[in-house]
Amino acid sequence: VNAFASIIYLLVCGMGSAMLTRWAMSRSGPGNGVLRFETWTVFFFTSFFGGFYILGYINLATDFPVVDSLFASVIALVVFTGFGLRLVKKMPGLLRQGENSGRSHNAVMQLSLPGNTLTRTLAMASIVIFALIALMLIAGFPRGYEPQSYHLPVAVHIFQVHSLKVWSVWTTDFTHAFPANASIYFGFLLGLVSEHLVAAAGLVFLIPLGVGAYGIGRATGADETASLLSSLGLVTIPILVAPAFEAGSDVGGAAFLAIAIYFAVARPSGRQWDLVLSGLAAGLAFGFKSLHLIGIAFLFLVILRQAWSQSLQGTALERLWGTVRAPSLFLASTFATSGFWLVRNYVQLGNPLYPVYVPMFGILGWTKAMDFAAITSQNWQFAWVNSSAEWFVYPWLERLRASEDVFHKHGLGPFFAATVPVACLTVLIGALKRETKKSPVTIALFGGGLFVLAFWWLLNDRQPRYLMGALVFLVPLVAWTMDQATGFSRRVFEYIAALCISSALLMTFSLELVEFGTRFIYGRQFTRWAFYQYPAMIDRLPPESTVVNLGHRTRNYSLFGETHQNRVVVHAEALSALQASLEGRGADEAPQIVPLSHLVLHRIGATHLVTEGYPKLIPDECVELQKIAGLDKDIFGNPLSDPISLYRIKFCN
Amino acid sequence: MSHFGKENQGTNWFGALAVWLSGISMLAYFLFSETVRGYFTFLAKTLNKTVEVLLK
């Protein structure tokens, strides 16, 4: 029933979005493939997530467990039938067959790749390589440090309890309060298709990201070849492409930010519709990664400025209305797709942006997340650089510490190092020579990139992946810069970009190939328990079992078991509830001393414990532990330094 | 699209400057990036290991 409802939901959202796109395109004049595709993407994902937001509001207000594919498809059917009837009345030719087939034929024609032979070949090579990586990924299971720690556990939890309320067993783990579009997306897919296919589902968002970046490049006035090269450059930046191989939120966030920029800065249809679509995409970007709020704030300023400069005529009232209308449309649309997370966190935790906190929130009485504040530290940056000043040369150095290999950290890659700082410099020179006046889009993009980078610098938690929003603003500037070069210079510039893109692709592919070879050809990790390294018994626990994770934090997801039949008390909550001590180990490591109070274990509903290494377990008089399974060898048969143990908990009567 | 280096001074100095800087930046990346060095070290180790396993 669940899979059937999920398929209906996808079909209704897909067809309803196609109908809305056709209607929107008929209002916005002659369109192009990029505009049509990005419009459909915004409508599709707005309706996909929108159904769950509506259920989330009902769940928040009534506590009824309604967050489910079945109810979501009912909502989608009702909403799109309503829209359809209204639109068909307004536009009788909307559903006409002949027109539809003509349009789909046009759409297919527009799918052919733009640019010259070099870029088309490069684009085809990229598609083939990403397809091969997808094939390698579906041999395994969803992976990633953060996805396994909280995106996927939250995803399973949402569909286990049919609720979008903040998941809290003992105290609120701040990661459970982040906007959870990624968890809805992957959770929905986990209920519909095999876990193997979900492992590659992050790649989907590279498509709207690439198309969006191409559209932004074209909006700067650059030609097709330059725009396609900058777009390929963006989707092969290691720090951005690596999360696409995981079940995370980074690529989804970047994709919707790119779409929001495309509609707000390029204004492809030149109508107010652009702002609605930009706002909807911005809200979705926030739902994936709340950090994109900074980029969204900049887009708001751009729209405000556009509106102000366009309303210099008329009476004071007309000017005021003209200035207020466009930013209001953008804000209202943003709120439509991000409001649920803000309302949920305000209602449940007393701070709409929880766990984000700035001193000003104190005046409003908003809550501070102490666990989040404790992990934010300027010292994090020293994993990448030796001093703050070294960030200015980081793209060319990409330091690795003595104990690290290339799997440890992803840098900005050759395309960024070779072209983006140069593009920023050329835009700056262009602006000083007042030549960019002919292309205000470049200045807006440059400003957006600097705005995000400035906040990243001030945030005091300088990890390169947090500047991903700046990449979306800055990389399309490469298209504009390339377009400035002519003749021989231009050809050389194209070859430099192509060399950087192909070397990044080759490095990414070969690393994935090695990972694939190690895991499957050498290690034979075809089963879930072998892939995640846990005792196979976890997959065969009785129904309603609740496993407490006293191992590493990344074990949170795997402990749900093969069919996600188990409940899990995640690492952070387990440590907090049981007052377990890490004894100086890292915050994500397995605890070393664990008092086991029967009262606490009862309250969190624990039936089983998973430990890693040799922790000192201190059960009280009413708790008895029975070891029922263990894993003490790795995939190659070598003894594990920290063996995994599974215990059943027995309580006294 | 205007090519302002060309318009202003008769030669496309602006595009040429961008290309030179890009070329130098790319070389700097491949020479100094520890990721690139780490990548080749890792690849060499992997190849060695693969040969070892195949010869066993």
Describe, in plain words, how this protein is organized in 3D.
The complex is a heterodimer of chains A (653) and B (56). Chain A has 653 residues and is α/β, with parallel strands linked by helices. Helix content of chain A is 59%, strand content 7%. Chain A has 26 helices and 7 strands. The longest helix of chain A is centred in the last third of the chain and has 36 residues, at 487-522. Chain A starts with a helix and ends with a strand. The termini of chain B are far apart. Chain B has 3 helices and no strands. Chain B has helices spanning 4-9, 13-32, 34-55. At the A-B interface, helix 18, helix 19, helix 22 and helix 23 of A face helix 1, helix 2 and helix 3 of B.
The proportion of strand residues of chain A reads 5-15%
The overall pLDDT of chain A, averaged over residues, is 90
How many β-strand stretches of chain A? 7
Structural class category of chain B: mainly alpha
* Main pleated-sheet profile of chain B: none
Helix tally of chain B equals 3
From the alpha-carbon coordinates, what is the Rg of chain A to the nearest angstrom? 26 Å
Task: Specify the helix fraction band of chain A.
Answer: 55-70%
Identify the overall geometry of chain A: globular
Stretches of chain A where pLDDT is under 50 for at least 5 consecutive residues are 97-102
Through-space gap between termini of chain B: 62 Å
Instruction: Name the chain pair whose interface involves the most residues.
Output: A-B, 52 and 35 residues
The average pLDDT score of chain B comes to 80
Percent in helix of chain B: over 70%
What general outline of chain B do the C-alpha atoms trace?
rod-shaped
* Rounded radius of gyration of chain B (Å): 22 Å
Q: Give the structural class of chain A.
A: alpha/beta
Unreliable sequence segments of chain B = 7-11
Our estimate of the beta-strand percent of chain B is under 5%
Q: Can you list the strand order of the major beta sheet of chain A?
A: 2-1-4-7-6
The biggest beta sheet of chain A is recorded as: 5 strands, mixed
